[in-house]
Amino acid sequence: MYTLLSGFWKYVFQKDEYCVLILGLDNAGKTTFLEQTKMKFCKTFKSMNLSKVTTTVGLNIGTIDVSGVRLMFWDLGGQEELQSLWDKYYAECHGLIYVVDSVDEERLPESRQAFDKMISSETLEGVPLLLLVNKQDVEGCLSVPEIKTSFGESAPKIGKRDCLLQPCSALTGNGVNEGIEWMVKCVVRNIHRPPSSLWKTKKEQPIGSEYPAHVLCQDINKTHRNQCDHGSPLQLVVFV
Asked: Which N-terminal stretch is annotated as signal sequence (predicted)?
């Protein structure tokens, strides 16, 4: 009886869960974007001083509830030596956010190279892509049309998927809401990747674990967990 009632409760009240990767070069503003997102969508969340956010070594994890669904974010380090870990997270992500630093023109070719390698993965075929042109609040930054031109040769690699080029400032919050709300609509309507609760690979997750199997194999000491307070523990049960 308990099992039956528990299953019914989950069916009625449990939110569909979608996993979103936040990728880009180091210092592009990925973690600041994640912190800003949690501040905007989690009323009880108190963020760190955004001007003092440091470069991520490993990953940051965050979750928000919006429009009746739960988004779980994986903010991965963007240093060159960490980019080789990105593809370990591709198989079951529902959405991609790629952050471009519109101030650091010198590293733009490097950013595009990392983007091309990422988006060329067959594992990510059809996954919605939000391309964030960050730091638009900084005087002298590259404009959105300039970034679009710089990434123009990458267009064929993007293929048939939902894609949005969104100007934003992770520091001030401009453009963050628009990007997140767009992503929610895209992951919900993408029938090729159903919400986490329906994925058959859920059964492969170790019971009671809050991290996916491949994360458990990594050095957790280098992993910084960051979540909003929803009144219950964050359960990550999808990635393999």
From this structure: none
Domains in the chain, CATH or no CATH each: 15-225 (3.40.50.300)
Inter-residue contact 109 to 145 (CB < 8 Å): no
29 marked among binding-site residues: yes
Nearest to 37 by CA among 73, 7, 2: 73
CB-based contacts of 207: which residues, under 8 Å, 6+ apart? none
Q: What is the DSSP string of 94-157?
A: SEEEEEEESS-GGGHHHHHHHHHHHHT-GGGTT--EEEEEE-TTSTTPPPHHHHHHHTGGGHHH
| 25 labeled binding residue | yes
Alpha-carbon distance 238 to 123, whole Å? 15
Note the pLDDT tens digit of each residue in 143-170. Answer: 999 999 999 999 999 999 999 999 999 9
- What is the C-alpha to C-alpha distance for residues 212 and 101, in angstroms, rounded to an integer? 29
Nearest to 37 by CA among 88, 78, 94, 97: 97
pLDDT digit string, tens, across residues 55-91: 766 788 999 999 899 999 999 999 999 999 999 999 9
Contact 232, 225 (CB under 8 A): no
Segments in the chain below pLDDT 50: 6-11, 199-240
Whether 56 has a binding-site annotation, put simply, is yes
Q: What is the value of pTM for the model shown?
A: 0.77
Any known ligand binding at 137? yes
Active-site residue list: 79
What is residue 196's predicted lDDT score, i.e. its pLDDT? Answer: 63
